[in-house]
Amino acid sequence: MFMLLCVPCGLIYGESVTYLLISASITAVAGGISWFYRFQEANDLSKREGYFIVLISWVTISLCGALPYFVSGTIVGVTDAVFESVSGLTTTGATILTQIEDAPRSLLLWRSMTQWIGGMGFIVLTIAIFPLLGVGGVELFVAEAPGPTSSKIHPRIRGAATRLWILYTGITASSILILWAEGMTLFDAINHGLTCIATGGFSTHSDSIGYFPPLIQYTILAFMVIGGINYTITWFALTRRWKKVWSSDEFRAYLGFLGIAIVLVTVLVQMTEDHTWEVSFRESSFMIVSLVTTTGYVTADYTAWTPGIAMMFYLLLFAGGCAGSTSGGIKIVRHYVFFRNSWLEFKRLLHPNALVRIKIDDKIVPPRVLTHILVFFLLYVLIFVIGSITMAFLLEDYDDVILTSIGAVATSLGNVGPAIGSVGPMDHFAHLPSSAKWLCTVLMIIGRLELFTFLIVFTPFFWRVN
Fold it and tell me: What is the mean pLDDT of residues 126-146?
């Protein structure tokens, strides 16, 4: 259905839409076969089946999403088509398109649509499904739940998904109308409205948001901040439950971190670059918010600033927005718990017999959740190290092998988009060899599915029959 929604766009601009009709037909046939095939039904849906359903769904929809790129011939080769599709659906925003303006308008709309679909799908996962599977930072805010059953999972997903669709669609529509009123063409407004609220980063111009005037940049900046907030908190704000909004430790940490980073970098850029204060503030704040929320829009080349500033921006690839948002990355709440626990460890050393607990939103963090977060950090670093070493071997003939390797791996795993080296904010991924693109593709899916959901399927005890 989403593919067919792009057909009117192609007809308006006088483009051939045959590739969309073919892609939609293939997808419909595949979906129809699976719909009419009757699997043996079980009364209980186990956690094992839940993990597998999530993983196979994202892999399948990624392959289907690649069809328009491949069938249209705009992107040659399965590798590039799948890369672009996965980058869209995981809201990473890395692209292999070198001249975006040359692509058909209908295909660019589909490209933006994939990010909107992926963003909505992810927050449904994190708020409605992941807590039931015991995965994700959002579990800090919900009671521990046993394995989902058919009687438990349907009402919860149905109620949460309905509210999320209303909220997500409403914010998207608002951003489109505002951007259109500020001077964007309707086509550009629709595309950026879809990718902004999804914190995706795909743009209809090679210069990304740098193509547009400051007013539009500030507007998109504001919507990126909104996109990085836990959707539960956004719902509370819209229903005027301000006490719940301001009592969120993660929300306050998120705004505080952005504020401190923006002030610090703005001052450093002003001291080292020949800019006015307004330009320094706008470019610094936009790029910081873009990386922290893992949106990936670009207005400035932070790698052209001092090496120290470039390193600060690189470290932002490991930040992430709030849990329960469309952002990727490690997530602010995990950082918050990790540093809180590290700080309290000094107190535990001085008072070994004291019972020192960590609280989030005035609720004690269970030891199991704390262990989960610490293991997540360990796995994240381990995957980053192994991925970087592997990437370095794949890019051994490149000039900036180390920078490109750690940049491509960090931005793919964090679902950000721009990085450093030859995949910086003003570059693309088209020049990478196919093997490196497949590595980035797998890393994007691993990062989007919060590591555990992907990795657990490849453990021997996952397949062991009890």
Answer: 45
Distance CA 139, CA 312 (A): 30
Written as one string, the DSSP assignment of 242-304 is HHHHHT-HHHHHHHHHHHHHHHHHHHHHHHHSS--HHHHHHHHHHHHHHHHTT----SS-GGG
Q: At 186, is the secondary structure helix, strand, or coil?
A: helix
- Per DSSP, the chain holds a count of helices (H) and strands (E) of 21, 2
Question: How do residues 63-78 score in pLDDT, each as one tens digit?
Answer: 999 999 999 999 988 9
Residue 271: other Cβ atoms inside 10 A: 9
User: Which H helix or E strand runs over 364?
Assistant: strand 363-364
CA–CA–CA angle 90, 213, 267 (5° rounding)? 80
**Do β-strands 363-364 and 359-360 pair in parallel, antiparallel, or remain unpaired?**
antiparallel
Rounded CA gap, 290 and 393, in Å? 30
| pLDDT tens-place string over residues 362-373 | 888 888 888 888
User: Contact 250/322 with Cβ under 8 angstroms?
Assistant: yes
Please say whether the beta carbons of 6 and 191 come within 8 A.
no
Of 78, 67, 80, 85, residue with least CA distance to 27: 67
Burial class (CB in 10 A: 0-12, 13-18, 19+), 73: exposed
Site of tokens 């970087």:
388
Q: Choose among 429, 421, 384, 388: nearest CA to 310.
A: 421
- Return the number of other C-beta atoms located less than 10 Å from residue 374's C-beta: 14
**Helix 186-197 and helix 150-181, axial crossing angle in degrees, nearest 10:** 140
Rounded to an integer, what distance in angstroms lies between the CA atom of residue 362 and that of residue 247? 9
Q: Is 129 left (phi over 0), alpha (psi -120 to 50) or beta?
A: alpha
Which residue stretches of 395-429 are H helix?
Answer: 401-413
